[in-house]
Amino acid sequence: MSKLESLRQALACSPDNVPLLLVFAHACLEEFAADDARTAFERAATLAPGDPAPALGLARALHLLGKTSEAIVRTEALVAAHPRLAEAHLWLARWLAGDGNVPAARAAYARAREIDATARDTALEKDLRLDQPPSVKVPVSATGGTGAATTDNEDAPGDLDRVAEYELPTDVERPSLTFADVGGMDAVKEQVRMKILFPLQQPELFQAYGKTAGGGVLLYGPPGCGKTLLSRAVAGEIKARFLAVGIHQVMEMWLGNSEKNLHAIFDYARRNAPAVLFFDEVDALAANRADLRASAGRTLINQFLAELDGTNGANAGVLVLGATNAPWHLDPAFLRPGRFDRVLFVPPPDEPARAAIAGVMARGKPLEKFDPLALAKRTKDFSGADLKAVFDQAAEGALTEAMKRGRVVPISNDALARAAKEVKPSTRAWFESARNHALYANQSGFYDDVLVHLGLKK
């Protein structure tokens, strides 16, 4: 009798034994019995809600079944609920890399390594080119000191073509994306216009009231709800340079290099204002110092605070955007005036926004009498990433049928409705954690917007 059959018989005698269910499910994964593994992990998750092991196992089973998008969405929700789970970050990095999202994969892998130095995948490191450390070079003047480089080039120092003069550990973009390309989020957009765009577009008017362009804005909310998309749209609206900064582009193993990387990024933004610096998963670089024992992490946080204060250079015209799924992990010093003093809650898309997002996702796909409003009504609490998982799952079913028939089979509304039933909204797990913080750790009113969204406060 095989090991799998022995475990199956043992489960028949003890169907509610969670440890046994997990052993059986992992054995199924080893034998590529993905359907059996999925059933066992789902059973374990029902019996032990809140336990991350069944949730991660279920994501692995879904990936084995070819449902990579759903696996990624579930794992993103898992790491939001359990941010110190290195294994989940590692699997997320692998799947993101396989899905072609290299920047996000690098960030997830760096997070896994930060939590647990033994969590390593050398093959993944080669795929992500992490075996080649980023270089950071400060411009050197003719006298050999640091500062503005002297050159015979007639171009102005702010020209984008001169990025090569100042090598950065991150890429510089000029996004063409604008608010018109971002579905829904009208209330958040209005706040962004008043707090970010108008001061940059009409500086003289705001200066009359003692207001200057630039500063720091923190975007927080459930994963997959458009914080990164909104940040790119901000840069596109003001036609500014956009630098997306991940933890892997800052952190280095050599003492002091991480601080130099961070300063190089800020210094480039100051030289080329207006510029938008976007720190995704900013809590990884701005963690609460009370939770850190290593001095290296504390010195990087102190450097980050100094850069936000403009201690090493004026920050006028530099907009610093931070996005996080776990704002409760940020050091309180980042939230004082002059740093991330403006905090915006980015909620899941409402029904009209979901319909707009569904319309965008439907482009280029063979659909049959597609009704975005009907889908929006079925997907309450879904994030944009969850909606993508719905389309991916429905497309996989249609593709399977198309392979059998040898012709294109359109995606029907019924297929989308079935997929919407199978994909669970990832935002609910986030709100379970956020609700506790909003109710019991909200003395400053930081999470009032969460309470309003949940209907617990007017």
Estimated structural class = alpha/beta
Low-confidence stretches: 133-166
Strand neighbour order, sheet with most strands: 1-3-4-5-2-6
The fraction of residues assigned to DSSP E strands is 5-15%
Total DSSP helices: 19
Radius of gyration: 24 Å
- List SSEs in N-to-C order: HHHHHHHHEHHEHEHEHEEHEHHEHHH
Largest sheet: 6 strands, mixed
| CATH architecture grouping of the largest domain | 3-Layer(aba) Sandwich
Note the overall shape.
globular
CATH class category label of the largest domain: Alpha Beta
How many beta strands in the DSSP annotation? Answer: 8
First-last Cα distance: 62 Å
CATH topology heading of the largest domain: Rossmann fold
> CATH superfamily assignment of the largest domain?
P-loop containing nucleotide triphosphate hydrolases
Mean pLDDT: 81
- How many distinct folded domains? 3
Ordered list of secondary-structure elements with their pairings:
Blueprint: H1 3-13, H2 18-30, H3 34-47, H4 52-64, H5 68-81, H6 86-98, H7 102-115, H8 122-127, E1 172-173, H9 186-201, H10 203-207, E2 215-220, H11 227-237, E3 241-245, H12 257-271, E4 275-280, H13 295-309, E5 318-324, E6 342-345, H14 351-361, E7 367-368, H15 372-378, H16 384-405, E8 411-412, H17 413-422, H18 427-440, H19 448-453
Parallel strand pairs: 2-5, 2-6, 3-4, 4-5, 7-8
Antiparallel strand pairs: 1-3
